[in-house]
Each structure stands twice: as C-alpha cells, then as structure tokens.
Amino acid sequence: MFRNGRHDVPERWTRCAGTVDTVCWNGHLSVLGWWTQGDHRPGVDLRYTRMNLWDMEIRKASAPDFYIPSVVKPYTAEKWPSDNPDVFTRASEQRLWLNPAEFGVIIEHVELDHAKQSVYFIGATDYTTPDGGHLVADTRQPIVHVEHWVEGEENEPINRWRMVHVTDQPDQAMIDFFAEMGRDVYLRDFIEVHIREVLGYQISRK
C-alpha cells in the first residue's frame, strides 16, 4: 500500500517552466482578469481566502473529473481508499499533454498533508485494485509526480504546484507546453469550478 507519498518524490524537483502560481492578492480574483458576482449580492466582489483554496484542493484530489474538466474525461475518475483517509489511490482518463485530442489512463497515489496544506500525487505505471482488477497507465506519456500546495496570508492566498516527469532526458516539447501554461493569466478551471459549484458565485472572464 502507498505510504508517505511525499517521500517518494525526488528531493530535487525537475521543474517545467518553474513552479506555476495562481495568485489571488487581497482575495480579489479580479486582478487576474476575472470578475465575480454573487447570486444574491449583485456587484459584491468575492473574497477567496486561503481556507477556500485548501478546501478546493481537498475536494479536487478525490474528484478530478469534476474539478478539472479541461483535462479529465467526465465520469472516469475512480478512488480506492486506505486505512488512512488522507491516503488513497485514484485513476482517471486524462488528456495527453502533447496530444490533447487523445485520453489515457493515469494512475496516482495521493496523500493529503493538512499541516502543510499540500497534496502529493505520485504517478504509477500500474495498480491492482482491492477487488483484484489490474490497471495499467497509458505509456504514451511519461509518469508524472505532482505537488499542489497553498501559500500566503488568509486573504492573500497563493495556489502553487510543481511536477516531475520521469524521462531519461529533458523533454523540450513538454517543457515548452508547461512554459506556455505558466504564462496564462487566468485562473485554472478547478478554482472556477469551486467558486461556482461550492461557493455559489457566477464567474466569467473580463
């Protein structure tokens, strides 16, 4: 069984275009090119806090197909718990980074660290489910390990993440892909979903 997943990640992360940040200075999402309007409070800005951000990360870890619709194929996510509620394995069909028209099976061992407000996703080549089923990860994309975490003050939250692709040598196409992603000024869809579906606000780009 998966244990202490964060220790399985190489101590020296290989970063593709550095650590990717989503910054919500002063809790105002509008600084990132978004506006929000409460369902029952027209014209009132949403204050998105660090507590909100961590709540989103917890929910997303268990339901990636709901929170990351741009990447994970709907209704494909499965989760297998362990004796520790903060440690589990999940699998889903996800878009291949360099061939987004295609989906592949991605297997991840997950650990939530509430003290550090970090989530660790350790990619796996295969997994035998508790009922004896055997899953095999798609080989068209390198195995990847990911960390998502929350930083900043309560009213100045920062969502950060980094990843390691397990390859024999640097993959320039992959590096370029994530460099481009890092230049996107808008929120990632998982934050938008959380704001809309959990907090009850409508949100759209300027």
What does this structure look like?
The structure is a single chain. Helix content is 18%, strand content 37%. The radius of gyration is 17 Å and the shape is globular. With 206 residues, it is α+β, with helices and mostly antiparallel strands. The longest helix is centred in the first third of the chain and has 13 residues, at 50-62. The strands form 3 sheets. The protein has a 7-stranded antiparallel β-sheet with strand order 1-10-9-6-5-4-3, covered by helices on one side. It has a two-stranded antiparallel ribbon with strand order 2-11. It is built from 4 helices and 11 strands. It has helices at 50-62, 64-67, 172-182, 189-198, and strands spanning 20-23, 34-38, 78-81, 87-96, 99-113, 118-124, 126-128, 134-136, 144-153, 156-165, 201-205.
